[in-house]
Amino acid sequence: MTNPQDLKTIGLTHFSYHANEPLFRINAGVPVIQALSHASDLLHVAKLLASDAAMVRDTDRHAWASHYLQDMSKAIIDDVVKVLDAPCNNRASNLAP
User: Fold this and answer.
1) Which InterPro entries does the UniProt entry name for this protein (predicted)?
2) Which of 71, 87, 70, 64 has its CA nearest to residue 14?
3) pLDDT (tens digit, 9 = 90+) per residue, 39-71?
């Protein structure tokens, strides 16, 4: 198995679709550990915004901001999962005789 510190995003995950066309994608070459740390930060802020939106009237902007932050976070995590699921990183295939 590849050393986890050597794994990098592959940049195959798109997000923020409009008219069935993606506006953004995850960049390739970002260390997986940094990408996951960034996703965690985005999710933390999204959680705070969602909490505000649930508690305060007229906070649609908080809900939409939370929605977009969650969309970005999911894309980062999906791209990392694609890296981890790659055959060269799969322990079972490396252990097979």
Assistant:
1) DUF3077
2) 71
3) 999 999 999 999 988 888 877 888 999 999 999
